[in-house]
Specification:
alpha/beta, six-stranded parallel beta sheet
């Protein structure tokens, strides 16, 4: 079995995340893509929306995708979970593992916990972002969706999602934040 893991805070989830999943499903030789919302990102102070809510939104957004599964592995830990922990958990379930990250993570990648071990366990897959250069030894996902969760939280701009789920997410942010 070949798996791809795509983690993040998804706070909020948006069309850029959907584009990453669609492109990964198209170009990677995988049996399943597992989306793993973080309880807390080790590099960020906190998520603005509770993990279980983001998990449910992701389940709704990706329900039409047969090869996509939403995992509560990191949310269930109720703490920041290092990527190596998640990779080790899923490595026992597959023969080959792809790890999807955004290009905005590349500059801090060398500081990730157990990065040398991660390098031996996964094929790195990088979603392009804002013209950042992708190393030759990594698989490139060409994503052209100029949207970020930070921008959405600060400006209430469109998520680019199916109208029903988009309305649900935007309403939640307006009422709770």
């Amino acid at each position: 079995m070949k798996l791809a893991l795509y983690g993040g805070t998804f706070d909020p989830p948006h069309a850029g995340h959907v584009a990453v999943v669609q492109e990964a499903l198209e170009i990677l030789p995988i049996d399943k893509l597992i989306i793993i919302p973080a309880s807390r990102n080790p590099f960020k102070p906190c998520a603005t929306v509770e993990g279980t809510i983001r998990y449910e939104w992701l389940r709704e957004i990706f329900s039409p995708y047969d090869k996509v599964e939403i995992s509560d592995f990191e949310i269930a830990q109720q703490r920041s979970v290092y990527t190596i922990e998640t990779v080790k958990h899923y490595a026992t379930l597959c023969d080959e593992l792809y790890l999807i990250i955004g290009a905005d993570n590349l500059e801090k990648l060398s500081s990730w916990h157990c990065i040398d071990e991660l390098n031996t366990m996964v094929h790195w897959v990088v979603a392009t972002r804002e013209g950042r250069k992708i190393p030759q030894n990594m698989i490139r996902l060409n994503i052209d969706v100029p949207i970020s969760s930070t921008d959405i939280r600060t400006s209430s701009s469109s998520l680019g999602l199916e109208p029903n789920i988009e309305k649900k997410i935007i309403t939640y942010y307006k009422e709770h934040l």
